[in-house]
Task: structure prediction
Amino acid sequence: MEQAQTKRIVLGITGGIAAYKAAEFTRLLIKQGFEVQVAMTEAATHFITPTTMQALSGRAVLTDQWQDDKGMAHIHTSRVADAIVIAPASADFIAKLASGLANDLLSTLCLARDCPLLVAPAMNKQMWSNAATQRNIQRLIADGVTILGPASGAQACGEEGMGRMLEAEQLAQDIAAIFQPKLLAGRKVIITAGPTYEAIDAVRGITNRSSGKMGYAIAQAALELGAQVTLISGPTALDKPQGAQVVNVTSGAEMFEAVKQQVAKTDMFIGVAAVADYRVAQPSEQKIKRSDAALTLELIPNPDILAWVANLPQPPFCVGFAAESEKLREHATEKRKKKNIPLLAANLAQNAIGSDDNELVLFDDAGEHVLPRADKLTLARALLRHAAALYKKGSTQ
Ligand code: C5P
Result:
């Protein structure tokens, strides 16, 4: 990777059992051609020794605010860095970053930085889901910090759940991606996300359990790749991704209208929304009164938005999603053909809906590509890298 050869990463290690993964992470970064300057908190040195990190990075490890003879390690180190990566980032360190504290070398150099900051959280699942941690994470995202992971799985404490640090390989891939060219720079990308709500009467409706998390993560990943993003979203409780144009809609028909209005000059269309297959033929304007008689609602099909876009005379590069409850491969392959789309991401609905992580299988002309279980943003990044490569290949053929 030619571009990364001169890039300097400051790798900040904080106190947590996942600190052992920082050794492999450093090795992979060095292998990819990065220069790595390790800085450790005092707590981190209880989990992995500076000697190990020094041997792997080939540089003296910074641990002490007062050790640098120029007395300005925090300014100097952050000035020459192209990115600072905190891996693992403990709940305590994340809280520190969110409040702008600077009471040790690592937190001071984060505050004094002039480069991107990336944070790979690692903690017990309760600590991760604690309202304070979630608040701090949201604060960091709003401050422009990139959060890498976490993943879910077995934890050192013996529990199972969200909070595991991403594997070293994944982290190294994500860091490399940041220094890669902005694959979608100047491209217009439309993403539909979330559920739709189809009114039955003035107060009731038909909807589904889609949270919108996957679509919003894809919007975020597309922004990271330099795309101009329009997110057409059904009702969700999520924060708007910074930098995206968001069009809020309620029903499938409204979503379709918004897509029609926005679709001109679009380079890529990604249908992630769980559009209701049917809507009520004649929703009642007033609340339907209860009676003892049976009630029949006539349902009529909603338009297939993705299929409509994919079959335009000059369609954008279309990506579809398929949430299946069984026979993933069979149904996904059939759906990709039926909707006439080059790329389809499939998952098992029972694994995906509402959860923070997921597992995807991509289907394209070349076959199947498994994206292993990870948080939705990690998957979104991998999916978009794949889509951007196919898009580029198609447009240069
Ligand atoms: O056919 P199915 O609903 O399983 O297809 C799912 C894919 O099609 C998703 O990408 C979804 O966003 C899109 N879709 C759509 N409009 C519909 C139904 C599905 O765009 N009415």
